[in-house]
Amino acid sequence: MPDTISESAKERLLRIMRILEGEDRNFTSAELEALTGWPRDTIRKDISFLPKQIQAEGGEPENSDRSSAGTFSGYSSRILVSMIKEALGLNRCRTFCVVGLGRLGSAYLNLGPDALGEFELAAGFDTNVNRVEILVSPVPLYPAYKMGEVIQHLGIQIALLCVPAEAAQQAAEKLAAAGIRGILNFAPVIITVPAGITVRNVYVRDELLALSIKMNQEI
Question: In what order do the strands lie in the sheet containing 74-76?
Fold first, then answer.
């Protein structure tokens, strides 16, 4: 996607994609406004930046929208999802691993093969060797000291970091050294990584606080 597109626009397009996946009909901008809470003009503007080379199945863009996914009867969900995936670079499979196989980490081991779409779970790691040996998993499990070897061998790009706060920084450093490009951090602590590695923090308490603030505003 062009550099002129803001991060907030990318987040909106990602949410629209999640809403439309699995659907096979047209959605008007008014429907998308109702589903997302964003003004339809904002939605049209975001969609207008998508690649034009993907052709719609006839018709003209909805109102003033020039995107090839739009028609007078709305946006084709199938085409729009395809366009968003291409624009955001999501039309390829990426492999990921889980680091820390406690209650949270081990919960990801038994997700079905289609649960996460284009993301494939390739391995799990834990410092507790007994846990690695005891857990029943459809994906291979390894002791943490093998992270570097396995991650490089399997070409794993993303890690779900599910370790306690006190172990997060050391684990992040090992992941960085192994060549991981992205970390989804569930530990309630800020981790420091070298440039070129993307980190997203998922803190349940922060999300609950944000939800509470939103609820207060709607009273």
Answer: 26-27, 74-76, 70-71
Strands (E) located in 32-162: 70-71, 74-76, 94-99, 119-126, 141-143, 158-161
Element holding 132 (H helix, E strand): helix 129-134
Regarding whether 173 and 108 lie in a shared domain, the answer is yes
Q: Which of 48, 71, 88 is the last residue of a domain?
A: 88
Q: pTM value?
A: 0.77
Asked if residue 105 is part of any domain, the answer here is yes
Residues 101 and 70 in one domain: no
User: pLDDT (tens digit, 0 to 9) for every residue of the chain, 219 residues total?
Assistant: 445 778 899 999 999 999 999 899 999 999 999 999 999 999 999 998 887 643 343 333 444 444 556 555 789 999 999 999 888 888 888 999 999 999 999 999 988 767 787 899 999 999 999 999 999 999 999 999 999 999 999 999 999 999 999 999 999 999 999 999 999 999 999 999 999 999 999 988 888 998 899 888 776
46 closest CA partner among 78, 17, 89, 76 = 17
User: Do 17 and 75 belong to one domain?
Assistant: yes
* Strand pairing category for 182-185 and 70-71: unpaired
Does residue 127 sit within a domain?
yes
Helix (H), strand (E) at residue 184 = strand 182-185
Q: How far apart are CA 74 and CA 52, in angstroms?
A: 16
